[in-house]
Records
---
Amino acid sequence: MKPLHIIPYFYLFIAALFIYDIITKLIASNYDIWLSLGASAFAIFMFFFRRKYAKRMENHYQGKK
């Protein structure tokens, strides 16, 4: 069950990389940020989704014991 607790933070790391990409593009006056913005929003969504799923699975397996 350890990977289920680590994977959501991987999505936060990916979101941070895309947010960094957005900031560097804005500083360089390149306003083509939509793909990075969408990818970072998706990664943040996946963080919360995976975290909720991991808690649900943990509760499910605790109930079986």
---
Amino acid sequence: MNITFEELNRFLEEQFPQGAAYGALEALGDGWAEMSLAVDEGHLRPGGTVSGPAMMALADVTMYAALLSRIGLVPLAVTTNLNINFLRKPVAHAPIRARASLLKVGRTMAVGDVLVYSDGMDEPVAHSTMTYSIPPDKYRN
């Protein structure tokens, strides 16, 4: 692992402050990350379910954290593709949690997947696969 939990949290606060609206870092390892989002009224859609954009945002920022655990603090690593399957309705006011795992990290691209869970449910509520673009060394901090 190229960074610590504390270093990544500090980096996210400084470089990606809007990320706090998408979730909080819970755990970090080499090529994986776990984050959670406290669901409130702003995350719900009609019918009392967590909105797709809320789950997508949590999945995306969790994958970003997993990628940075492997490549270091690279602000310009960006999502180039995100596919998500919504599997079941989450519990309306319960936190959602995501675990991202890297499948492959190359020189310029990374691929991973994310499972999203709703507190109180054993089965995942969403599954996402993502591709990230990793900038050349000259564009890294």
---
Amino acid sequence: MKRKNLITLFWISLATSLFFFFVFTDEKSLDNFILSLLISFMYSFILGMGNGLINDFLNKKLPWSEATTKRAIISIVSILIANTILVYFCNYMNFVIFQKAATTEEYFSGKYNYINWFTINVALLISAFLHARGFMEELKKTSKKEVVEQKLIAKSANAQFESLKNQLDPHFLFNSLNVLSSLIDENPRQAQKFTASMSKIYRYVLEQKDKELVTVEDELEFAKTYCDLLKTRFEDSVDFVFDVKKEDYRRFVVPLSLQLLLENCIKHNFATSSKPLIIKIFSENDTLCIENNLQAREQIKESAGIGLSNIVQRYSLLTKRNVFIEKSKDYFKVKLPVLSAKPNVVSEKIEDTDRAYERAQKRVKEIKSFYGNLISYCIVIPSLIIINLITNPNHIWFYFPMLGWGIGLAAHGMNVFAIGKNWEERKIREILEKQNKQ
């Protein structure tokens, strides 16, 4: 047990011994005070430490967060057995050894069964409080850990998305300058036109690279301008075919995806007037396809893989739909998902995390309310039992508040831990998942 718990037990033992000494002891002597102190320390430390050690052991071997139901069953069984044994031992030491009020035969004959039963109930209430407190601490740690993990995931996704978008600017500029350097030697006049057009295209890159999604129409207009530049350089060696459905124009794709894929087509295939490279951009089953006849060139230098992998990763952060790649002996095709709505998954993750944190806070308040109720029950009911037994032992009335409040406490616990909003949300998710599978 922790030092803090031992100190708490010490003060509880001292307070209990003083209470019983001044209230229930007729002869106020030093011997009786020491006896009262000894008995109080015995009950407090044996019952408190016994239940505390059981709770600590179960926390290590079977944490609440890993197997809640199994842990609850084992906790109930263990505290019933342990407290029965510990109470019988403490009462035996008290009445037979210290006070010498009974012999061993009288103690086990059933004369003290009522006192044993009463003490066991008090011990069980205290033990239930300790285990409930352990459960609450474990739940708070788990909830806090989950919230922190979700925030880290959201921040990581956001940082990853920004990193991917930042690849586009230098990547486009590098490839465009390569094209321009080739044109300067081959056709200076075309190089001038290319420079003017490149400034227009680069403006689009700067405008769109910070966006998560753009319309298919905007991306096609940009792709056509870029294809004109490629046509300027390669002339009859490259041909472009656009066949995108008009209804797809107002839908969305990741920005600069067509430009990256067009670059890949040029980069990984050879193109000549006798064997032109034909690049098709068309609609197919809610996807935007970029297909080229396969004329693979030998790669002197291994590709960095920025283009296609960038697109795949950006789509993975924005939607559950995948980018599909098809390759055969004759063609190479990439299918980009065309999205009907404009999702904002990164910000949604952060919002979902904030909502999860709010739910976690609300959950902790509900649990605190329950344990406040439980602590009150553990304090008030034993006090009522003591008052009843002292004032009118022939008329037992403490059963009524104990049972009534106990039923209410059980209902409160069931609402918080079993059939509350958490259970409702879980059932709603199960129903929605079944409907989605149909």
---
Amino acid sequence: MNLLELTPSGLYCPQADIFIDPWRPVEKAIITHAHADHSRYGMKHYLAHHHSAEVMKLRLGQDISLETLDYNEPILINGVKISLHPAGHIPGSSQIRLELKGKTVVVSGDYKVEDDGLSAPFEAVKCQEFVSECTFGLPIYKWQAQKEIFDSLNNWWRSNAEKGLNSVVFAYSLGKAQRIINHLDYSIGEVFAHGAIWNTNQALMASGVKVIDIPKVTQEVPKSRFKGALIIAPPSAMGSPWMKKFSPYRTGICSGWMNIRGARRRRAADAGFVLSDHADWEGLISAIKATDAEKVYLTHGSTAVFGRYLEEVEKIQAVELETLFEGENGSETGD
């Protein structure tokens, strides 16, 4: 990667003197999206898509130095043409396109290829070199259509409500939670948000993202209103004293890891819904082939297996990159 090099602080473009999703404090950083493993505290100057702006300020501080761009709005930094393109991962998620003297490299960040109705849909960007995640880079990962998953979730909620049970769904507070909120059947009952999710909703709406504005769980909300309701909470709330106010309840988890047998039992949930904001095996392959890239750099996930497939079957040169990006690993850092 002449345009990019991997340094102890992360991916770096020497010509533009700028990092992409750096792991350590640097002077200038381009941020692919606002999840905590890609958007970190301590950079002197940030550049991101405008839908990420208010969430980044919520998480990193209102006083950060932040410049924002729209998709397909190129800027020139020391001869390097830089533009942001939709990654389809969460609102504001961007692929970073770098061009210099006829050479084009695209850093995809995290992405998915199915249109979730919330984020700008993934856009394939032609390039010679492509930096791709492969969080779910194994053939066992094949997602159902989104409508089928939400039908299943709504039916589970309806069944609980008919039995006099409340429903608590655990989902990442940025991206996954809003995706769920926008696809619920509100004829079933009321929907409430944990404070962390409610705050994120407000920040996204302030940045122009269309999210249904649901009420926040507070001490003032009488317990009677939770009867038959669905409450959306971050994974960190699981098993916490905060949960007592919803008893009796059933719990569900929305995650790509629910694809693995036994994952729901290990997390002590009553139901698991295979809903991921990352591309599955086929999505990764289709996205990479659509770029026409001659070389692909693979980060976090099943890099060895997926890289071998690209080289042996697709005849695309693949290189593993050791990064600190965590992907959808059960924490609040990547979804």
